[in-house]
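User: I'll paste a sequence; please echo it back and then give the predicted structure.

Assistant: Echoing your sequence first, then the prediction.
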Amino acid sequence: MKAALVEDGYRLYEQIWSDQPPLFTHMLVVWRQMFGPGDAAARSLVAILVSLGLASAGRIATWLGQSPRAGVLAILLLIAARSFPKLSMAVMIGLPAISVALASVWLMIASAHGRLRRPTLLLCGALFACSMQVKLFTVILAPMVLCVCAMTCTRAATALPRRWVVVVDTLLLMTGFTIATLLLAPLGEPGWRQQLLQPHLKTGLPTDDTIYDSLRSVVMRFLEDAPLMLACLSTMLLAGRDAVRRATPMLLWIATSVVVLSQANPLWGHHRVMFSIPAAVMTAVAATAILRRGTSPPLAPASNRVSSRRIVSVALAIALGYGLASLLYSAATLGRGREGTMDAEVLGRLTALQPRTKWVLSDDPHLVHAAGMRVPPETAVLSLKRLQRDLTEEQLSEVISRYQPKLVLLARHEWDAEFPGAINRLTADYMLVLTKRQGRVRLFERVPE
């Protein structure tokens, strides 16, 4: 919806309320102009970026595991992870942002012994800045990126001590990041701090999650890929210290995710990949290290080694089996779930009314966009979090007065529970024409004057 409003001439942050950075919206505008405004075109852009992320994760696993088998296994584990196929095909920006950040790490690894190391580091910093201008939560990956930068630096063609090489490489990385951020970030747009930063942090409001609630949400996100996490834990325990040392960047990623996401408010489904991606890479690295022991002198009695391999095989079988079942389930139900489809009756009613109006006040802009209509720019994001924080009932009334929408569609939030009486006041000039799902989905049409 935000891309469609930008195409109509409205400006992000100044007129269009947006709690996300601008880069993906502008990319989507260009993509829509090339391939059309349909959902399929938008999903294809996400799928391309996610494919880049998969390849990058595989390359990182190959480097950490010192074997192509680790890269292949990491990719298979990621494809099989719960909800990864759904997120890779949804018009959601979390996974594309992580994919761009992983591409910067891939380039960093590829340039470790090359002549173009320093220019490549500038490009890596710029790519990481691009990932944050898709979604700010990739700042979680910054310690991991710096760790990889230090691990890949070499003393080739320089007489500097290694610690100074690390400092120079880090400064080059940060220079590329700073330049790209200054070029891409909406620093000159009014209200960008309020829209980009405040909605994602705890600000002391009664509606904020407590630290306990946030940590519980982190644990739940961690356990949503429980078989993969079980495989990761078991293989890392059995792989030995060397594999754990080589997996340090991924351990740092998970630790940073726990610290940062415990301050987020609230957590969403795409946050789970902050655990599943490093877990898949760590599992692949550890499993490769264990399988490599067969060609080395035995480090433990034969019976213990056989028992360890059986445990690893069972753990990997559980993770892969569970993940493949999820993949098949996602493919079989694609287009039937709430997130993958529209309510046909509501969409049909909106489409029938489309020639008579352009504006629809709604908390489900995806559904409105599918019907060829627009939501007012000020309500491009009408999330429960925003309604609880900074969008008052009076402001919504002003939006209705300014745009005179002929339709009001409420399809996502429990309005009666969260804002008792507000619906009756906001829709005083409207009549209820359609209700679905025990009244949660309601469509109102303005009463003719």
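The chain has two domains: 2-333, 344-446. The radius of gyration is 25 Å.
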